[in-house]
Amino acid sequence: MNRLADATSPYLLQHADNPVDWWPWCAEAFAEAKRRDVPVLISVGYAACHWCHVMAHESFEHEQVGAVLNDNFVSIKVDREERPDVDAVYMTATQAMTGQGGWPMTVFATPDGTPFFCGTYFPRPNFLRLLESVTAAWRDQREAVLRQGAAVVEAIGGAQAVGGPTAPLTAELLDAAADQLAGEYDETNGGFGGDPKFPPHMNLLFLLRHHRRTGSARSLEIVRHTAEAMARGGIYDQLASGFARYSVDGHWTVPHFEKMLYDNALLLRVYTQLWRLTGDRLARRVARDVVRFLADELHRAGEGFASALDADTEGVEGLTYSWTPAQLVEALGEEDGRWAADLFGVTDQGTFEHGTSVLRLARDVDDADPAVRARWQDVVGRLLAARDARPQPARDDKVVAAWNGLAITAIAEFLQVAALYEDPAAEDANLMDGVAIVADGAMRDAAEHLARVHLVDGRLRRASRDGQVGEPAGVLEDHGDVAEAFCALHQLTGEGRWLELAGQLLDTALARFAAPGGGFYDTADDAEQLVARPADPTDNATPSGRSAIAAALVAYAALTGETRYREAAEAALSTVAPIVGRHARFTGYAAMVGEALLSGPYEIAVATDGDPAADPLVAAAHRHAPPGAVVVAGRPDQPGVPLLADRPLVDGRPTAYVCRGFVCQRPVTSVDDLVAQLR
Question: 145 or 568, which is more confident?
Answer without folding.
Answer: 568
